Task: structure prediction
Amino acid sequence: MKHAAELLMPAGSLEKLKVALLYGADAVYMGTPDMSLRTRSNFTLEEVVEGVAFAHAQGKRAYLTLNLFSHNRDCDKLAEYVETIRNVRPDGVIVADPGVFNFVRDAAPELELHISTQANVCSWLSVRFWEKLGAKLVVLAREASFEELKEIRAQCPDIKLEAFIHGAMCMTYSGRCLLSNYMAERGANQGNCANSCRWNYKVKARLKDGTLKEFELNDATKELFDFFLEEEQRPGEFLALEEDGRGSYLLNAKDLCLMPRLNEYLALGMDSLKVEGRNRSAYYVAVTARAYRMAIDDWRRDPENWRPDAYMRELATIPNRGYSLAFHDGQLKHYAHNFEDTHTLAEWEYAAVIAEVMGDAFLLEVKNRMEMGDVLEFIPHASRAPLLLRIYEFEDIRHRRTTTAEGINAGQRPLLRIPFAWFHEEDVAALRSDFPALTIVRKERALTKDAWARLKLDKVAQAAEQGGGNENEYQEKRQELVAAIAEQNAGVTFRTPRLGVEGCCGRGCNGCQHFWNDPRYARARELLKSKKQGRLLSGKEAQRAREE
Result:
C-alpha cells in the first residue's frame, strides 16, 4: 500500500467541520476568533469541544490553531486556553510563535505540537530546529518548491511534514503581510487581513500646482511621459512603470491548485496535504474534499495510470480566482497572477444543503436564488455520480407557501420540501442512505460576458503554466477580457465604499488596530474582558459601548 497521506481540510464553523469530514477529509483544523488567525471563525470553545468529539466519533482527527504571533494582550489568555483545550484532547495544536510554543509545551506536555505555515519553514535546517524542540509536525511554507520539499523529506525522515495543496495564496510570505496593517489598520497575522493585495491600484501624478492627474500610460502616450522607480542605493537603475487607465490588480495572486501534480506529492511521502479556506463556504469545503479524496484514493489503487483531468473538472465547479501551481517549480510565472479581475468565479454555485431527511422528502436550506427549471445536483458523500433533479415547484414550508411561476430567493431563508416522489427512478431507501443531512446541492450559475471571458483566460493560463499552451493565446484572451470588462462596467457604480477602512465594527477583532488603540473603543475593550474566550461582542453590544 502506498503512503497514506492525510487529507486536511479547514473548518470555519461547526457545520463546515462536519461537512468536511463527511465528504472525505481525514482531519480538520479550526480555531476560535481571538487566539488564532481566525477572526472570522464562528467557533466558540464549546463548539470546539463538540467538533473534536464529532471528529473522533468518525475516526478522524481534529487540530486546533493557536498560530498567532502574540502581543502582550494575548499572553494572559494562554493559561485558560491551554487548560481548556488539554481537556478537549485535540490531535494537535498548531503554533507559530516560539513563546507560545514554549508555554504550551511546558503547561501541557501531553499535547502534540505542530508548527504553522506562519513560521515560514522552507529548509530542512528549520525543520530540524523545531524537531529538537519537540514539534511532531511541521507545516512547510507555500513558498517552498517541490525540489526543496524532496530534500527536506530526505533530510528529515522522522518528523511529520505537511504541505499546502489548494487554496488562496498570500502575496507575502505565508501571511506575514504589512500591507493590511498599513492601509487598513488590520493585522494580517492576527487573522484580520483586509486583503489589500486584492485591490485595484492606479498611477497618479501630482502637478506643480498641487493638482492630481490620472495618466494612461500606453503606446500612444509613452512618448510624452516616462515614469520610473529608482531605489536609493541603485542610482541610475530605472524600473519602468506601465499601466492603462483601468488600473491593475498588480498583487492579485491566483488560487493554489496542485491537483495536476498531486501524484508527485503522494509519491514523495508527505504526511499531510492541507487545503486552505477557513472563510469559504460549506460548498467549497465539500467539493474540494470530495475531489481530493477521490484523487488520493485512485492514486493509491493505481498510481501508474493516475490522471488529474476528472478531478480538475470537479474543482472547476468551485468559485476560484483561476488556478496556479504557484511555487511548485520554484520560479513563479506571470500566469500565477490575475491582473484584470479579482473575483472568484465558476460555472456552478452553491444552491442548497439538505437540512433534514424526512420520511418522504428532503428539506433544503436554500443558499442562492433558484429559478423554475434549474437543474439541482445533489452531491453524494461517498459515490461519484451526483443525483440530478430539474425543479419546477418551490414548496417553502418555513413560510407556508408554494410557487411555480417565480423563483425563490435565499435571503428569506426558505426551507424547501423536495418529495422523494419527484425522483421517479430512484430507490427511496437509497435516497435516504446516500443523501443524508449536510449533503450539498449545486446548480449552474448565469454569468456575464466578462465572467465568461475571465474563465476562458484562466483555462488558457493554466494550460500555459503547465507547458500545454502558448503566450500568444494567453495575451489574446487577456485582451478579450479587458474589452469585456470595459463593456460590462460602463456606467456601473457602487453605492457604498469598497475598502472598509473607515473605523471598525467595534466587536473586538484581534488584529484590528482601530479597536485596540482608538480611545473610542475603550469601553468596548472593557466589555470584551468579561466575555468567554472565543466570543466577540455582538453588534448591539458594540454599538452600546460606543454610545456610553
